[in-house]
């Protein structure tokens, strides 16, 4: 299955190396393990590190991943329980400003990521129809399987961004 993400980012992703060939179950496991991996990666960090090629700090990326998980979980629940399949996109930089990513403590961002992963787990638990389609105005028609792979990519890609930021 060729996904929107594979076409847009490359397969594997041209930047982070994420393989789109994983199953939705493997992608969900990658997402659910993110709070542990991020906390381990950021142990002893204050969250202010920023790669010179990136706009956001480490703690802002953690906050973004938390918000992305929660937002997509809500979209999945809307689609599977209420039949609301039209996705309303948002500008991530505007959300970062409104939510104050750069002013949030890293510990708070990691706490939010943990709770967002739990919300994600609840949203995808027991989904039987991975072919259910969500309509994204910019990305087109996305099956739930594609959504899961895309969210896993976001989680892995920003972990790569964090690693680069910590190394710079």
Write the layout of secondary structure elements.
Blueprint: H1 4-9, H2 24-32, H3 34-41, H4 58-82, H5 92-99, H6 106-124, E1 133-136, E2 140-143, H7 144-167
Helix pairs in contact: 2-7, 3-6, 4-6, 4-7
Description:
The chain contains 7 helices and 2 strands, in the order ααααααββα. It is globular. The model has no long low-confidence stretch (mean pLDDT about 95). The longest helix has 25 residues. Helix 2 crosses helix 7, helix 3 packs antiparallel against helix 6 and helix 4 packs antiparallel against helix 7. Helices cover about 60% and strands about 5% of the residues. The protein has a two-stranded antiparallel sheet. It is mainly α.
List unreliable stretches of 5+ residues: none
What is the assembly state of the chains in this entry? single chain
Note the run of SSEs as H and E: HHHHHHEEH
Q: Work out the helix count.
A: 7
The fraction of residues in strands falls at: under 5%
Task: Calculate the mean pLDDT score and round it.
Answer: 95
Structural features:
168 residues; mainly alpha; two-stranded antiparallel sheet; 7 helices
